[in-house]
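A quick aside before the break. I want you to see a complete sequence-to-structure record at least once, exactly as it would be stored in a machine-readable document. Don't worry about memorizing anything.
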Amino acid sequence: GNVVYVFAGNVTPDDVDGIEPDPVATADVTQNDAGDFVYRTVIAPGDYTIAFTCQAKNDYPEVDESTTTPIEFVSPVMQTVTADMETVVDF
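That is the input. The structure line, written in tokens, reads:
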């Protein structure tokens, strides 16, 4: 259930449900050999809100969880992504 959600613009993160804002990308968070938790995604240049949740397994695309059991996000970060550059966002 550990996933990073990437939203276009400066928004309040929400679950995947077909109601704006929906993420433009999601990325599974995995543990590497050094024991760090990492994720990676490729997105176009622009401004994004990037948010982490450990409750993604409870996010059903056909359901608006905000009306039942909202998905909680940890410390959303507003980030500008530049072309041909790696951008690091820590939570």
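Two observations worth writing down. The mean pLDDT is 94. DSSP finds no helices and six strands in the chain. We'll return to this after the break.
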